[in-house]
Amino acid sequence: MNLKSTIALCTLALAQSVFADDFIRINTDNVDLVLRVKDNGRVYQSYLGKHLRYEADLQNLPDGTEAYLTHGMEDYFEPAIDIQHTDKNPSLLLKYVSNTTSSKDGGNETVVTLKDDKYPITVKLHYIAYPKEDIIKTYTEIENKEKGAIVLKKYASSMLHFSNASYYLTEFSGDWADEAHISTTQLNFGKKILDTKLGSRANMFTPPMFILSLDGEATERTGECLLGTLGWTGNFRFTFEVDNKGNLRVISGINPYASEYSLAAGQTFTTPEFYFAYSHSGTGKASRNFHDWARKYQLKNGQGNRMTLLNNWEATYFDFNEEKLCGLMGEAVKLGVDMFLLDDGWFANKYPRHSDTQGLGDWDETKDKLPNGVGRLVDEAAKKGIKFGIWIEPEMVNPKSELYEKHKDWVIHLPNRDEYYFRNQMVLDLSNPKVQDFVYGVVDNLMTKYPGIAFFKWDCNSPITNIYSLYLKDKQTHLYVDYVHGLYKVLDRIKAKYPNLPMMLCSGGSGRIDYQALNYFTEFWASDNTDPIERLFIQYGYSFFYPAKATCAHVTTWNRNASVKFRTDVAMMGKLGFDIKLDDINEDDATYCHTAVKNYNRLKPVVMEGDMYRLVSPYTGPHASTMFVGKDKQKAVVFAFDIYPRFGDKRHNVCLEGLDANRQYKVCEINMMPNASSSLNGNDRIYSGDYLMTVGLDIFTGNKLNSRVIEITAM
Ligand code: GLA
């Protein structure tokens, strides 16, 4: 940071030429983002890339493109901001005012203040750089000091510029039970947009994350790339536009679709945060940086422990009573997990929740099923020495519910049209403070009545349909945005009152997942699809951005062709849970699971806090492997899966990563079925870290649906 900012600020009115060659340098240990104030008083992005060794070289950088492009001026491509002034003038011209630096949220913050020279509109660009993690967090504030309201038509969080020979965009798309599917395309002239318009279950088709590779496709270990993601639990939009000169502009923020926002006089609009990791040595490094950063700065209780659990959803669906649940708690104890999680189906009396067709919104225990209430279950769990968690879906309502009958005005619906239902339900209007109180009350009432509840699974199964808010009246285009603000108000209150309460973010799988939500949630449900083969792909996709400790993975009965061992080994790469009845599995499987839970608890510091290396991608062939290495390099664990190897396949050693080349490590296969012995070549032998990383191990087999967990321990 070397801007002569204070001088510039004082002399702003006197001479604009004083700005020439002033630089604003935002940097981490390995990355530089350089903005330049040109003699016209406007701010340009001169550089984004590898850290520059010599300050003097900043002078040699090209001018670049205007950093936060406005609508209505001389640039012909997509702007970051587009507003309409009180007098209906649609243009904005932003000139540099000042910049400041300070420490914030564990990083170094630079705030660049810009102002229109004709209208009292101020725009502040915030950049918080995390030196060790090479992550930059950015957001924007737009302040209206005009006499009346202005209209925000586009209001991006961030705009970044690239000037490279080629650009490759990797996106993560999918659907229910098919999340985070990876595909890569080259970007050529024109626009590519990734966005969502679903409102609440906003990420059902795509989460707000992307990988941009520069000058060729980056691999795990090589290439220049940027991993970007937006912290917004609603509609987002990423616009990638290659212009006439072959430069790429990337605009990230709230999706402006149907969301013109009127900003009253004297108000400031703060955009969501956009986070990016920049790497010059492939995607693996950027992912590890994201994981470190998230654990330290972003995830709720990011550095704390996570509980293993038994969930009853797939074991019972809606068909349970007190006795059945208490029986399942006994199974949780046998498995050795930390918690029992009661899922959907425990509430509502006028329209008991016996299926997903009714009862949502009525949060009293169903008397027939739970005559002694949730309290009896909390007590039973305590007696058995485990914790108790509970499922809620507080933002939603079934039309067949008392809530709907009493408070139709709280439901997002078009008053003059037929209602459209998604999973037989509708979305409550969180822009309304009364609805916020109600939603907050779902958690607060349960916690007040049953302080022993140790965990919430917060679900959200429907996108916003029938979009109209009785509360917002003539401000209907605020609904998508105010819904999310309302949600954050609720979650803020919960976090303030219950700062240590772990909560799982769920949305019919991971139909809602972003880093702002994860500031309120300790973990997320990656998919309803728990077929372990599919999970290899889904968990692989999310691993680019989210650490294992946040990624819930349960062992279920999906895909019985895969052994319980295979299913468990896959789930152990995330936050382990079970959703299976022990009755459904044989004694050997049950013994195996018990041992696996013990192994998992022992390896938690490695899987949850360590560095993750994606050794072999499931996308590249019949095998997949991921490895975790403890921060002290004392212990590591390798997960290896043979999915569908063919008879003639040639297998090669896989080189491990992240170990200390100069230490000796013992290699030992664990998670074996009772009485089975390891067929791993070199099992129980000692190797140098150098050997393991240079020559590698023959970790795969030619057997279909075979899995191995290999523990590596420094001697
Ligand atoms: C969603 C969740 C599931 C389960 C059901 C209950 O689909 O993703 O895990 O909780 O709701 O209705």
* CATH architect. name of the largest domain: Alpha-Beta Barrel
Q: Give a list of the ligands.
A: alpha-D-galactopyranose
Q: What proportion of the residues is helical, as a percent range? A: 10-25%
- The fraction of residues assigned to DSSP E strands is 25-35%
Structural class: alpha+beta
| Rg for CA atoms | 27 Å
Structural summary, described in words:
The chain folds into three domains: 20-289, Distorted Sandwich (Beta-galactosidase, Chain A, domain 5), CATH 2.70.98; 309-610, Aldolase class I (TIM Barrel, Alpha-Beta Barrel); 613-714, Immunoglobulin-like (Sandwich). It is 20% helix and 30% strand. The protein contains twelve helices and 37 strands. The strands form seven sheets. Strands 6, 7, 8, 9, 12, 13, 15, 16, 20 and 21 form a ten-stranded antiparallel sheet that branches. Helix 10 (564-571) packs parallel to helix 11. It is globular and about 80 Å long. The two termini are 45 Å apart. The model is unreliable at 1-18 (pLDDT under 50). Alpha-D-galactopyranose binds at residues 313, 343-344, 356, 391, 459, 461, 506, 508-509, 525, 528.
